[in-house]
Amino acid sequence: MITFMNNSDSEEEPCNERTSLMSAESPSVPSYQDGLQASEAGEAQAHRKRRTGSSRSPNNIADGDMSDSGVPVRESTLENEEEELTLKYGAKHVIMLFVPVTLCMIVVVATIKSVRFYTEKNGQLIYTPFSEDTPSVGQRLLNSVLNTIIMISVIVVMTVFLVLLYKYRCYKFIHGWLILSSLMLLFLFTYIYLGEVLKTYNVAMDYPTLFLVIWNFGAVGMICIHWKGPLQLQQAYLIMISALMALVFIKYLPEWSAWVILGAISIYDLMAVLCPKGPLRMLVETAQERNEPIFPALIYSSAMMWTVGMAKPDTAARGPSQQTWDAAEDGRENHRSPSHGDSQMSETRSPVPTRPITSLEELEEEERGVKLGLGDFIFYSVLVGKAAATASGDWNTTLACFVAILIGLCLTLLLLAVFKKALPALPISITFGLVFYFSTDNLVRPFMDTLASHQLYI
Amino acid sequence: AFFWLVSLLLSSLIWFIAVKASNPQDEPLQKGLLIFGVMFSVLLQEAFRFLYYKLLRKAIEGLVALSEDGCSPISIQQMAYVAGVGFGLMSGAFSMINLLADALGPGIVGIHGDSQLYFLTSAFMTMVLIFLHTFWGILFFHGCEHRRWWEIMAVVVMHLAVSGSTFCNPLYVGSLVPSYLLMAAAAAWAYLLSGGSAQNLWRFLLCKS
């Protein structure tokens, strides 16, 4: 979903997996994460939308107070400018999301192609108990479908659990869970990843150095993601943990199950975000009622200092909207909190009506950004990584999937600009990606290979 | 790039069906099918270029309608250039990337009697194709804009000619030389269409203001 993706679950799952036995039999929460992500995304989007709605009314009131004659003019120019800015910066948003998604995919593909570890089969997750080593095709298909059903049901259960936790205000539990998950991801998975990379390139590293490196990496990551830090560093960390998670998925999901799960997840995402009774929708609405920002460390934010908003615990956790509107500084922080598109304009104008227009627009320009859930990153990278791993060593398939996913992302962002509400980011991209993967692998590859062998060009 | 990819997909689908439906042992038939596949693919690529032009036209109309001063932030010429580059990059990437990946590994070029210049000529051919796609993009869009059908036909014929010349491979003089000549011609033509002239070029080279 565009906005949030809950990463904590997935992090927790692998954690359990590792602690139990290296046979990787523990349940992972990726599905959960997916659901969470979807819910987060939906929640965040709806939240943002409500924010927009609520911010518009105080804005209009503020405008009215200032000068009655100026109000209608201001409002109409406001709308025009908003539309134009939305379109103009629509392209900018797309680029702002292309770069991190591309980076994540590049990291995953590079690792898959070079480090053998992630393409070896060393057991399966407990969420996919049925093995795919069966002799017949029908049995294999049945097993993969059963695996998918189990995975998706785990996701649904986890999502509902999260919604309940959120509804009954168990914030400490959720925050603790998130911190535990990211801790596990940042330390344990990084350690394993680093170990495998060093093994592949036959580089020796002693334990004290390793400890120092991992400790620094993990500690800075925790601070950046959950507290304050430079935006680019936070983005880099989020990309890295998404890539690590995707690599875990690629390694531990059996072949056919992975493809069926990708398809099922995008359908689930679509339903959970858009259906009125979906858990994600409920989560979003609850968050909107309380006017709260969603959990940290689960979304990729392209332009805001999200952590600044989180630094004030009362505004972040439970602050009613009045608090954020009163003080100019609070208004500024509220402005900096996640919002999408034209909500920015109204929000900034409302608390500080005397500020000159140009500086407001500048503020908006630099703080306007897009949010994409981390689960989206993860599943895009899983698709491209699987394409790189299993497409008979063909780079064309990987490239085709990459282009397909980016185009899907483009279309989703376009729809977001049109509909201005929470949208699932998975369906379109994953559909394109799957279509292109299977068609390129089976149709285009023989064609291109034959052309290349005769050195013909089209 | 996406549109080129889709055209490639459709053309390989057609070729694949044709191959599966025919006798795999029959060599000349396979070669004939391949040639047919190549020509069909070229025609499909140009058709998709046209579709892309239509899409961009609609987008420009939308942008113009929404902008304040009635002109869109990006002109159709810029879009033509970008479309051409996209097509070229995708076509080049698909042609070259497997070759590059194989070039990293061990092996001897042309050990079975094929040409030893395989990698070099592939690189040059890919480069010329990428340039050509860029220029064809400009020419094609210009022709569509001003309703000059002969320009569009010229682009299609040039593309067919370049693809056809690659049938002479490994007789590289038959494919590389005509392609480069065509590229020079297309470059000059696109330059003139984009508003350049010999005077501009001269001034640019002499670094006059």
TrEMBL record, chain A:
The chain crosses the membrane at residues 94-112, 145-166, 173-195, 207-227, 234-250, 256-275, 399-419, 425-444. SMART domains: PSN (SM00730). Pfam families: Presenilin (PF01080). It is found in: Endoplasmic reticulum membrane; Golgi apparatus membrane. One of its GO terms (cellular component) is gamma-secretase complex. It is a multi-pass membrane protein. It comes from the Eukaryota. Residues 17-36, 340-351 have a biased composition (Polar residues). Residues 1-77, 314-360 are annotated as: Disordered. Gene3D superfamilies: Presenilin. Keywords: Endoplasmic reticulum, Golgi apparatus, Hydrolase, Membrane, Notch signaling pathway, Protease, Transmembrane, Transmembrane helix. InterPro entries: Pept_A22A_PS2 (IPR001493), Peptidase_A22A (IPR001108), Preselin/SPP (IPR006639), Presenilin_C (IPR042524). One of its GO terms (biological process) is calcium ion homeostasis. One of its GO terms (molecular function) is aspartic endopeptidase activity, intramembrane cleaving. Its EC number is 3.4.23.-. Belongs to the peptidase A22A family. The PAL motif is required for normal active site conformation. Homodimer. PANTHER family: PRESENILIN (PTHR10202), PRESENILIN-2 (PTHR10202:SF24). Probable subunit of the gamma-secretase complex, an endoprotease complex that catalyzes the intramembrane cleavage of integral membrane proteins such as Notch receptors. Probable catalytic subunit of the gamma-secretase complex, an endoprotease complex that catalyzes the intramembrane cleavage of integral membrane proteins such as Notch receptors and APP (amyloid-beta precursor protein). Requires the other members of the gamma-secretase complex to have a protease activity. May play a role in intracellular signaling and gene expression or in linking chromatin to the nuclear membrane. May function in the cytoplasmic partitioning of proteins. This is Presenilin. It comes from Haliaeetus albicilla.
From TrEMBL, chain B:
It is a multi-pass membrane protein. It is found in: Membrane. Keywords: Membrane, Notch signaling pathway, Signal, Transmembrane, Transmembrane helix. One of its GO terms (cellular component) is gamma-secretase complex. The chain crosses the membrane at residues 31-52, 79-97, 117-140, 152-173, 179-202. GO terms for biological process: Notch signaling pathway; protein processing. Residues 1-21 form the signal peptide. It comes from the Eukaryota. Pfam families: Aph-1. Belongs to the APH-1 family. Potential subunit of the gamma-secretase complex, an endoprotease complex that catalyzes the intramembrane cleavage of integral proteins such as Notch receptors. Component of the gamma-secretase complex. This is Gamma-secretase subunit APH-1. The lineage of its organism: Eukaryota, Metazoa, Chordata, Craniata, Vertebrata. The gene is Aph1a_1.
